[in-house]
Design goal:
The structure is a homodimer of 367-residue chains. Chain A has 367 residues and is an all-alpha fold. Chain A is 71% helix and 1% strand. Chain A contains 17 helices and two strands. The first copy, chain A, has a two-stranded antiparallel sheet with strand order 1-2. In chain A, strand 1 and strand 2 form a beta hairpin. The longest helix of chain A is centred in the middle third of the chain and has 29 residues. The radius of gyration of chain A is 21 Å and the shape is globular. At the A-B interface, helix 5, helix 7 and helix 8 of A face helix 5, helix 7 and helix 8 of B.
């Protein structure tokens, strides 16, 4: 127990270290120069300036260290920053797509731009709304380009140029299309009949939206650590599968927190996932196990953007009573159990322990 | 005269060849597989399936050939396709930002997605409008990633991996931020007082929106042709400057065609640049040279989305009478004159002649 406790403490310590390294890397003057005058640069770094876990760069760095390539962990920092920026541009665009107003407890990019148009440029309400939308598209595009440029900052040597080349190719040729495929399914499922939606489709959608980028974090970390351009190397694939399963578990836990979490820890209003009608395995389970009058409640409240606090609370109680939250928690744990064997080929090391601690964390976390 | 005539004919012939090579490369099954099921792939290739000049890839290939690296022109095809895709993703997002409904005579990406939502998914009018907007954001993102992936398909050998590396870094680290800076200025200038806007600012904005990508086309073509990763090589810079000036001239001519061109050749409604209040050197000249009552006409019609056909015709006549169209035509020619000396260091070759023919074309073209 003491050892596990220590692992956990060290995990949080290392996570904090990654967070501050990635943040410093991204907010360096040298980085911000690329944006020129205007507020694009300020908006492009808004989410980076807010406290966050920076889980994806941590997985990349831990995986790189776990390959035994300890000396290459420093060289992996630009790639770690790149993956955080990839995640960030998808957030900027997804927030716009979902018309979300808050991210990490503060206004989303399109809302920031909208506020500025109203306050500084004196635009009227409609013009500032449109301005916010238009600028957020451009900010996400600038962040996307930045993520690629960051990856190309990987120092060669010690890393081979063709390793970087291959990693960029995987990111832009495979990972981003998958992320976009996941987001576009999410948009379509929003209006699909929940009872007609198979659980495998929902899990696949959240794997595309989350698991794929976690898998990439580990694959890139492993390729950098072993300095190999062979993404099909069984050792690289094993680490990719590990992170892929943990990423899916992470997202399942996210869905649970989206129901039971509070505004302070989540940074977005309580029950917003219910109001948005987000398709989750929790809801699917609840529909499959509810009586007609319970289904009626779900049909009425889920997806109703103006649902009252008491209606939200009623749905939360139903999801708890039906065991739907526990069902998804179990599902998340099963993914972690599928993940762990993929670490078996790795030598023992402090970095391997960090990966194990991460696997435990993804289903234990409350924020 | 006969020789010039022949150069011109060969230019159009080679342009047509480039167009079909780039089109075939982008529409190959292998390329489309990345998008998976759903209509993202169909929308991502919509503009590619329509007739277009594909001027940027042509400049890249002609420049590559003009370096004397004739044998490397074939190896430059993925980069040529990449640059067309870079241009295409900016069109997808710009069309959405500008709420334009037509591109190359057919519906823009967000309108295509909106139509599909209404016809196939049976969404109501508001839901399908929103769906179109959301999907167009994702399609542009997918195209952006695709452009990077295409560039990485450059065969190494004959090209060095670090040359490709450097070209991707310039595109995503410098060119895209510039393009976005230009677009964001365009959005801001839309609401700026035309008379308070210096011509240098407007020219800089259109250089950012157009000249920068033409410069990159030539820089990438030259780096591939000479197989050098040194973007500061004076020979590379000279070709970049040549294309940069011609690109600005191209855009100035575009502004002229935006006033005098007809719907059939432009693919968008007559006078749409006037209705949108697009800030051009033509308008700036007209304002600077108009009497109070003429300014009143301009102020009333320019930027009025519901201006009548007769009001548009009245503004067109005023711009002609004031010599504003001729003023901008002269400005465009002056950029071409600044461009040509940058070709002087190049050996004579059929490719150099194609670049010269392109320089003549950018200010002569009527479509």
């Amino acid at each position: 127990v003491t050892s596990t406790q220590t692992h956990k403490e060290r995990f949080f310590l290392e996570l904090k270290k990654t967070e501050s390294m990635v943040r410093d890397y991204l907010l360096a003057d040298r980085q911000l120069e690329r944006f020129g005058p205007g507020h694009i640069g300020e908006l492009a770094t808004a989410y980076i300036r807010r406290p966050a876990k920076r889980m994806r760069p941590a997985v990349l760095l831990f995986t790189c260290g776990a390959t035994g390539g300890d000396g290459r962990v420093a060289a992996a920092l630009p790639a770690a920053a790149a993956i955080e920026m990839t995640h960030t541009w998808t957030l900027t665009h997804d927030d716009l797509i979902d018309r979300d107003e808050k991210r990490r407890g503060q206004p989303t990019v399109h809302v920031l731009a909208q506020n500025r148009a109203r306050q500084e440029f004196d635009y009227d309400s409609e013009a500032s709304y449109l301005y916010g939308q238009r600028i957020a598209i451009l900010v996400g595009d600038a962040q996307h380009a930045w993520s690629v440029a960051l990856l190309l900052e990987t120092p060669c040597p010690p890393v081979d140029g063709c390793v970087v080349h291959k990693i960029v190719g995987i990111l832009e040729g495979q990972v981003v299309p998958d992320l976009i495929g996941g987001e576009s399914l999410d948009i379509q499922y929003e209006r699909a009949d929940i009872e007609g939606l198979p659980e495998t489709d929902v899990v696949r959608m959240l794997w595309l939206k989350t698991g794929v980028l976690y898998r990439f974090s580990a694959v890139a970390g492993a390729m950098l650590g072993w300095n190999t351009s062979d993404a099909d190397d069984p050792r690289v694939r094993a680490l990719g599968n590990f992170a892929s399963h943990c990423g899916t578990a992470f997202q399942l836990q996210d869905d649970i927190l989206g129901i039971v979490g509070d505004e302070k820890t989540l940074g977005k209003p309580v029950g917003s996932d219910i109001r948005e009608g987000k398709r989750t395995t929790i809801l699917l389970h609840a529909f499959a196990n509810s009586l007609p009058e319970e289904k009626q409640l779900l049909r009425r409240v889920v997806g109703d953007h103006s649902a009252s606090a008491s209606e939200i609370a009623e749905v939360q109680r139903l999801l708890d009573r039906k065991g739907s939250l526990e069902y998804t928690a179990r599902l998340a744990r099963s993914y972690v159990e599928k993940a762990l064997p993929h670490l078996e080929g790795l030598p023992s090391s402090p970095y391997r322990e960090l990966l194990e601690a991460w696997a435990a964390f993804v289903v234990e976390r409350t924020r």
